[in-house]
Amino acid sequence: MNDNLQGILMDAVRAVAIFGGVMTLAPMLVMAERRICAAIQNRIGPNRVGPMGLLQPLADVIKLLFKEDLIPDRADRTLFSLAPLLAFAPAAIAFIAIPVGRDLQVADLNVGVLYVLAITSLGVYGISFGGWASNSKYSLLGGIRSSAQIISYEISMGLAIVSVLMIAGNVHLGSIVEWQAKNGWIIFYQPLAFIIFLVAAFAENNRLPFDMAECESELVGGFHTEYTGMKFGMFFLGEYIAMIVMSALLVTLFLGGWDPVFFELPEGAAGTAISVLCFTVKLLAVLFLYIWVRWTLPRFRYDQLMKLGWKTFVPLALLNIVLTGIVVSLLTKTG
Amino acid sequence: MKSEMTDENKNETEQPRRSWSFILYLPAVAKGLFNTLLHILKLKGHKTFTVQYPEKRPEVRPGFRGEHRLKVDELGREKCVACLMCQTVCPANCIDIVAEEAPWDDRDKRPRTFEIDMLRCIYCGMCEEACPCDAIELTEKLYTVSTSRAEMIYDKEKLLSN
């Protein structure tokens, strides 16, 4: 009984710590995005609020909280209010299966990959519902585009992950990382799958060059055209948390998760702390790539996006699976 | 000459032959990413044009058209003879002059009131061009600030001291 209680308490502490970490990272990411974008465009970026402008995200959130909450006339009020939550919550709960350190995750699921994939693909409901419930043409178009895009790219992303699973021989995220710690990062075994996964992750998060759902120049704001105040803020936050989850999955599957590469992890708490640090550094590097790509590449046209997804990535991912299967079966037969 | 022409036409009508690197798209992406990385690291085109506004003011170029000024002659009298040319030419109808008889011998009239509605003014500089006495000009003052509409109607004293 006492043991059980302690176990629950430990779980709660881990959940709060990891969730808190993600929630702190999201506003920092917004800040980093604005400063990096400014550097790329030869500007300075926000530098007034707090030291070096570091409190800008806080000011933004306070502003959003105090804004008037508008619901358009003849909008579907229930769905309209529900949509931001639907965009935000799946992104946040997908993170629980990801091992952020050695034996450190909120829930140790033995089908971790499937869980994360299933939950992250729920995020599209928030966007499509938001677009549909707004009773606006721009929003509806944004929502439709988003669902079409995510359906297309989910397939190539799933297929890219299949080839990873074939090598690691497990769907448990912790075991995949342990396999990588022993045999080297999977990106070196599966460079093609890595590229496909990376591009599909950009598309999945509606990030440039695939932000068809927002598409400022054509659709005003896409699915969130009609949203104001903290409801818009929830979409915004959800987008960044989804980015963090995708990057964490990328790090776990391809970049060795918490594996520090150059040395063996010591036993005990010190080893766990170092592993969390390694994971964070890799995560931040991938997030930087996200931001860097966003401010470099122009947006794809809708038909180009579909063509790239269905005519290039799906066949390539299938080919990759076949080749991986042949190589893996040959190696296991001989060895 | 003729063959060149046909070659040109051919190039226009035919689809450009696209190399594998173009179709793969990734080399171009890498090139673009490298370019933006140079900007992030301030290795290329690192001149930042942002002016940190309240502390630093933007440099005003010569010929800038800001607030108006009424000029005075060497005796300290306003040069304006209340001919109403500026009021007539003003496309925004922002100038309002009431004339009175001048106490001096060299002119018939002078303005009793000379008001410019700065909220209506479009700073086109037509008044300056129309003035036969070179009495009105646009200064380089660009911060036209007030807390009420009434303050934005500049009277003769304000314009003379501008």
Describe the protein in words.
- The complex is a heterodimer of chains A (335) and B (162).
- Chain A has 335 residues and is mainly alpha-helical.
- Chain A has one domain (64-334).
- Chain A has helices spanning 2-40, 56-66, 77-94, 112-120, 123-133, 137-168, 173-183, 186-189, 191-204, 216-219, 229-254, 268-294, 302-334.
- In chain A, helix 2 (56-66) packs across helix 11 (229-254).
- Chain A is globular and about 65 Å long.
- Chain B is α+β, with helices and mostly antiparallel strands.
- Chain B has a domain at 68-161: Alpha-Beta Plaits.
- Chain B is built from 6 helices and 5 strands, in the order H-H-H-E-H-E-E-H-E-E-H.
- Chain B has a 3-stranded antiparallel beta sheet.
- Chain B is elongated, with a radius of gyration of 29 Å.
- Classes of the chains: A mainly alpha (335), B alpha+beta (162).
Topology:
The complex is a heterodimer of chains A (335) and B (162).
Chain A lengths: L1 H39 L15 H11 L10 H18 L17 H9 L2 H11 L3 H32 L4 H11 L2 H4 L1 H14 L11 H4 L9 H26 L13 H27 L7 H33 L1
Helix pairs in contact in A: 1-11, 1-12, 2-11, 3-4, 3-5, 3-11, 5-6, 6-9, 6-13, 9-11, 9-13, 11-12
Chain B lengths: L1 H12 L6 H5 L1 H15 L27 E3 L14 H5 L5 E7 L7 E9 L8 H5 L5 E3 L14 E2 L1 H6 L1
Antiparallel strand pairs in B: 1-4, 2-3, 3-5
State the distance separating the first and last CA atoms of chain B: 67 Å
Tell me about the biggest sheet of chain B? 3 strands, antiparallel
Q: What does the main sheet of chain A amount to?
A: none
What class, by secondary structure content of chain B?
alpha+beta
CATH class of the domain at 68-161 in chain B: Alpha Beta
Count of discrete structural domains of chain A: 1
- The residue fraction in helices of chain A comes out at over 70%
- Specify Rg of chain A, calculated over alpha carbons: 21 Å
Structural class of chain A: mainly alpha
Please, how many helices of chain B?
A: 6
- How much β-strand is present in the residues of chain B? 5-15%
